[in-house]
From TrEMBL:
It is found in: Cell membrane. This is MFS transporter AraJ. It is a multi-pass membrane protein. Residues 4-380 form the Major facilitator superfamily (MFS) profile domain. Keywords: Cell membrane, Membrane, Transmembrane, Transmembrane helix. GO terms for molecular function: transmembrane transporter activity.
Length: 390
C-alpha cells in the first residue's frame, strides 16, 4: 500500500471508531450521565448531524484550498472534538462535542476519495478508494471492540481519549505522507451542487440514507439487545462487536468485488433484500443467542457491502462536482444513522423491548430498495459501470 493511501486509511479508521464506538458503550454512558438509553442514542444522532453539516461547510469554506491543507484542518477538528468529548461533564456538552467530532467525517471521505484517485496507479482508482474505505471496516473489527473493552474496564471516556490521540497520529501521517496536490478547479459554490439538478443522484442519496438508516434502527441499540434479549453477559460484548466488525470488513470486500462483476446498482438492490430478511430474522429470533449473533454478522456485512458501490455510483453521477459528490454518500449514510437511531428508539420509549428496532428497520430499508429499483429502471439505458475517472 502506498504511504499516502495508508495515511488516508488511518484517517477513516479513526473516523470509524468515532462513529461506531458509541454503540458499544451506550449503556455505560447512559448510566454515568444518569440518562435513558434512548437519550444516549442522541449522541449517535448528533455525530451524524455533524457529518451532514460538515461536508457542505467544508466545500463552502475551503473548496479553493490545496487538498492536503483541507485534510490537515479536518484532522485538527477531529482531535479537538474527541478530546473535549472525553472531558464532557454532562449530557449537553457531550452532545455538542459529538456534533463537532462529526464535522470532519464526510468532508474527509470526500477529499480523501479525490486524493486517492490522484495518487492511484493507472487503472487502479477503484482499488485506491476501497483501500481508503477499508480503514472504517478495520475500525469496526478492532477499534470499536477495543473502545468497548476500555469502557467496560475503566470508563466510557477512555475511547474518546484514545480517539483524540489517534487523531494526532493521523494529522502527522497526512502532513508527512500526503503529497502536495493542487486545489480543485473552482466551479463556485453553486457549481458544487449542479449535479443535484438531476433525479439520479437524489435516488442514490435516498437509497443510501434509507438502506443504511434501516440497519441503524437496530444497530444503534445492538448492545442492549444482546444483553436483554439474547441474554449475553457484558464481558461478551467485546467479541460480539469484533464479529460485527469482521462482517463489515468481509462485506466491504465482497461488495466491491461484486460491484465490478455485476454492476453497482444491482448489487445494492440485491444486498438490501438481504438487509430486510436479516432484520426481520433479528426481530423474530432475538431471544436465540447464536442466531442473534449470526444475523448481526449478516446485517453488518450487508451494511458495508453497499458502501463501495454507493460511493462509486454517486461519484459517477457528480462530474465536475467531485468534492461535494464524494461527500454526499457519507452525508446520506450519516443522515440515515441519525434517522435510524431516532426511529429505532421510538418502540423502546413505548416499552416494546429491544427487538422492535429491527422491525422498524425492515420498513426503512424497504424505502431504500424502492429508490434503487427506481434508479435501475430509469437509468437502464444509460447505466455506467466503468472505472471512474474524475
Amino acid at each position: 500500500m502506498k504511504k499516502s493511501l495508508l495515511a488516508l486509511a488511518s484517517g477513516t479508521l479513526g473516523l470509524g471508531i468515532a462513529e461506531f464506538v458509541m454503540m458499544g458503550i451506550l449503556p455505560n454512558v447512559a448510566r454515568d450521565l444518569s440518562i435513558s438509553i434512548p437519550e444516549a442514542g442522541h449522541f449517535i444522532s448528533a455525530y451524524a448531524i455533524g457529518v451532514c453539516v460538515g461536508a457542505p461547510l467544508t466545500v463552502f469554506v475551503a473548496r479553493t484550498r490545496p487538498l492536503k491543507q483541507i485534510l490537515l484542518g479536518l484532522a485538527a477538528i477531529y482531535v479537538i472534538g474527541n478530546l473535549c468529548a472525553a472531558l464532557a461533564p454532562e449530557y449537553w456538552t457531550l452532545l455538542l462535542m459529538r456534533f463537532v467530532s462529526g464535522l470532519p467525517h464526510g468532508a474527509f471521505f470526500g477529499v480523501g476519495s479525490i486524493v486517492a484517485e490522484r495518487v492511484a496507479d493507472k487503472g487502479k482508482t477503484s482499488q485506491a478508494v476501497a483501500l481508503m474505505i477499508a480503514g472504517m471496516t478495520i475500525a469496526n473489527l478492532f477499534g470499536v471492540p477495543l473502545g468497548t473493552l476500555l469502557s467496560n474496564l475503566f470508563s466510557w471516556r477512555f475511547p474518546f481519549l484514545f480517539n483524540g490521540c489517534w487523531g494526532m497520529l493521523v494529522f502527522f501521517l497526512v502532513w508527512k505522507w500526503i503529497p502536495v496536490l493542487p486545489a480543485l478547479p473552482d466551479v463556485g459554490w453553486k457549481g458544487q451542487f449542479r449535479f443535484l439538478r438531476k433525479l439520479a443522484p437524489w435516488l442514490i442519496i435516498l437509497t443510501t440514507m434509507f438502506g443504511n438508516g434501516g440497519v441503524f434502527c437496530w444497530f444503534s441499540y445492538v448492545t442492549p439487545q444482546m444483553l436483554h434479549e439474547a441474554g449475553f453477559q457484558p464481558e461478551s460484548l467485546t467479541w460480539i462487536m469484533m464479529l460485527a466488525g469482521l462482517g463489515m470488513t468481509i462485506g466491504n470486500l465482497v461488495g466491491g468485488r461484486c460491484g465490478d462483476l455485476y454492476g453497482l446498482a444491482p448489487v445494492i438492490q440485491f444486498t438490501q433484500v438481504f438487509m430486510m430478511l436479516a432484520l426481520l430474522g433479528t426481530f423474530l429470533f432475538a431471544g436465540v443467542p447464536w442466531l442473534s449473533v449470526l444475523l448481526m454478522f449478516i446485517c453488518a456485512a450487508a451494511l458495508f457491502a453497499v458502501s463501495p458501490p454507493q460511493q462509486l455510483l454517486l461519484l459517477q453521477n457528480s462530474r465536475r462536482s467531485e468534492m461535494m459528490g464524494a461527500a454526499c454518500v457519507q452525508i446520506a449514510f450519516n443522515l440515515g444513522n441519525a434517522v435510524g437511531a431516532y426511529a429505532g428508539g421510538l418502540p423502546i420509549d413505548a416499552g416494546l423491548g429491544y427487538r422492535y428496532p429491527a422491525l422498524v428497520g425492515v420498513f426503512v430499508v424497504a424505502l431504500g430498495w424502492v429508490c434503487v429499483t427506481w434508479y435501475i429502471r430509469r437509468e437502464r439505458r444509460h447505466f455506467i459501470n466503468e472505472p471512474i475517472r474524475l
